[in-house]
Design brief:
mainly alpha; Serine Threonine Protein Phosphatase 5, Tetratricopeptide repeat; 2 domains; 6 helices; 56% helix; elongated; binds zinc ion
């Protein structure tokens, strides 16, 4: 990643959140300029959605993980990750990943994304979950909350 310097405090410690550079020292937010690694996110994003729509869940899942490595606040990548895992079929080992992915998607959705993300999660959660949370009251409550978004 290109060296960036915060114009407010001169720190070069940045994280990408919601497609913006956020200075980890003072919290200033920056809109990226022209030749920027965020273009790479956009490219990954477009491919991720395209693969998901074409039911290529293996590829879509890999791309969602690539996006989340760069920006862990990307609501769509969390949503797609959950959707792919769900498409593979719910197993004991991935039920928590699915639940967490959808929770994160809702948590990180920006105002202009919220409606889209809620609709996506709601559609994905239209599934028979009951047998999956036997003996796990905490998981049950989280799943029930997701079915009501
Ligand atoms: Zn700063």
């Amino acid at each position: 990643m290109r060296e960036l310097k915060c114009s407010n405090c001169s720190s070069n410690d940045f994280k990408i959140e919601h497609g913006l550079y956020v200075c980890q020292n003072c919290g200033s937010k920056f809109v990226p300029d022209g030749n920027d690694p965020l273009k790479e996110i956009q490219r990954l994003h477009d491919r991720m959605m395209e693969k998901f729509i074409k039911d290529d869940y293996e590829k879509a899942l890999d791309l969602s993980k690539e996006v989340l490595e760069i920006d862990n606040t990307d609501a769509y990548a969390h949503a797609i990750r959950g959707g792919c895992e769900l498409a593979f079929g719910i197993k004991n080992y991935n039920v928590r990943t699915i639940v967490e992915s959808f929770e994160n998607a809702l948590k990180y959705a920006q105002d202009d994304e919220a409606e889209d993300i809620r609709a996506f999660v709601s559609k994905q959660m239209n599934y028979s979950w009951e047998k999956l949370y036997e003996n796990d009251r905490y998981l049950e409550n989280r799943i029930i909350a997701l079915t009501k978004v």
